[in-house]
Amino acid sequence: MELIVIAAAVLSTALILSNLAGILLAAFRLKRPRTLARSPGKAPPVSIVIPSRGVEPFTEETLQRAFSLDWPRYELIFCVAHADDPVVKLINRAIVRFSKVPARLLVGDDRISANPKLNNCVKGWEAARHHWVILADSNVLMPRDYIQHLMAAWRPDTGLVCSTPIGSRPDGFWAEVECAFLNTLQARWQYTGEALGLGFAQGKSMLWKKPVLDANGGIRALAAEIAEDAAATKLVNGLGLRVNLVASPFEQPLGERRLGEIWSRQARWARLRRVTFPLFFAPEILTGVAVPLVLALVAAAGAGISLPLTALCVLALAYLPECALAWAKGWYLSPRTIPAMMVRDLMLPAIWARGWLGGAVDWRGNAMTIRTKAMTELEEGA
User: Is pLDDT of 375 > 50?
Assistant: First the structure.
């Protein structure tokens, strides 16, 4: 029994310290939002491909931001799968309103994979006129210096520059829970990974050098995995290049969210990570507070220490540094942030377990079964 108590105390302490170390690494790598000026003579033309589907609460604002970038030469290529999508009217209206910015709307669905977003992007990529291409989700709230931030992260050994989304403008408690997932959990660990030399792509904003990707299969090569960002990570690493992150990640305004939406999205992402990077997904169960808290309570019970006091100490060591990170980087904070983090961490074990299970998940209203390429080939050959 004494050995169990000691082991539980050691493991709990190790997990808490690793959590703190991750926050410190991310804090060192991340910068507060700031305006970047364009470097004189270093503004190559850029194509921005924006796959769109449906109208969201902030669609008109994100469209306006895309047409208002501080970059001398860029084109916007909007992609929709179906001509009757309600977002088509908003895009066409914006193209007319901001006629000085070269922009096109392409309609069609190239079925190159089971990933509807990638299918939607194909026509935009192939129509892009410039050597620098950004694939940007339609709900990214682009700052005026959006392109500057992406370009500033490019290095001689870079194959891809990305930005994780930072949740902002939550409307209601469940949207704050989504902020807790996106910001001080997922963004924090992604920047921690980059600081350790384990950078991986994030599909929200992806800056490519088009000739490099075209020489290695083009955008269709990203169909090698069910998630285009996982395929991008493996392709770039296979070329001996690095995935870099912008120093100040871009906002994704959330608006209202419901529990079912959060569960569906997080379950899908968990399944995608489980299928594409199983060795990295396996230890994700240790990233929340649940495991160190249980271990600390086991150790406290065996040592005769107050359980409520132990729980309070563990929660304080977990959540106060998270809040400090959000405050330091100018991310959303409110009196409900810590309760939202607690709900998030209650959900994490179930989400992690769901990642190991098969069956269909929801992808923007489409039920789909996420498999590895090897699994699909095995089933097709059976």
Answer: no
Q: Taking residues 136-160, report their average pLDDT.
A: 95
Look at residue 68 and tell me whether its pLDDT is greater than 80.
Answer: yes
| Separation CA 13–CA 314 (nearest Å) | 9
Q: State the pTM of this model.
A: 0.90
Give the pLDDT score at 36: 77
Tokens of 94: 């914006």
**Domains of the chain: which residue ranges?**
2-26+275-374
